[in-house]
Amino acid sequence: MKFKNIIFYGGTSEISLNLIKLYVNEAEKIIIFCRNSNKFKEIYPEYKDYENKMQIYEVCLEDLDKNLEIVNKIDENISGIFWISGSTGNAEDEYNNIIKAKKNLKINLIHPIIIINEITKKMIKDSNSFIVALSSVAGVKGRKKQLFYSTAKSGLISYLSGLRQKLHIDKIHVMTVIPGYINTEPFRKMNLNAPNFLVTEPEKAAFIIKKSLIKKKEI
Questions:
Q1: CA torsion 175→31→111→75, rounded to 10°?
Q2: pTM of the model
Q3: Most buried pick, 12, 78, 144, 177, via CB within 10 A?
């Protein structure tokens, strides 16, 4: 086995599920954080085959204290983390409601950087260790239709850039993924009718992410 513990945040995401399939035989343990453990087991039928090497934590990303409590209990042999969690929210509602605006920023920026930050302190310092986090093309340029979401994703890109520099001395690789359209449930709910050549299937996205990570790409 090449890796020790690999953490997946957003375990029921279609991208996560496909990445888990790619890494399940390369890690001693897969640690999954998701909202609904039963849903994960339902949509990942192979779970029964790998139950002995999977550990599932049912958490809400809004509950920072609970997430940190679990992270602090995990042993320090962490080889990698995939952060595939987030929520686009509703820009108009958030603009008119400060509580909803704060919620979006917490879910997409504040909580991710704090949780990732704590996990880095438990990571193995060698060239196999990695952090992969999904931002969004919305984070490249501010968008009024995704005002707070794009702001949060932009901040995440900046944080990962700084973290990459900081962890370079420890040989921990940090890769930022900035995806366009991926044919996942959130995309399908948008009903954009985007041309097929602009839309990537989650299986292909996972393959590209793994291939890029092997090549040590930064973005």
A1: -100
A2: 0.91
A3: 78
* pLDDT tens-digit series, residues 44-90: 888 888 989 999 999 988 899 999 999 999 988 999 999 998 888 89
The length of the chain is 219
pLDDT in tens, 34-46: 989 999 998 888 8
Q: What is the mean pLDDT of the chain?
A: 90
* Of 37, 30, 35, 22, nearest in space to 4 by CA: 30
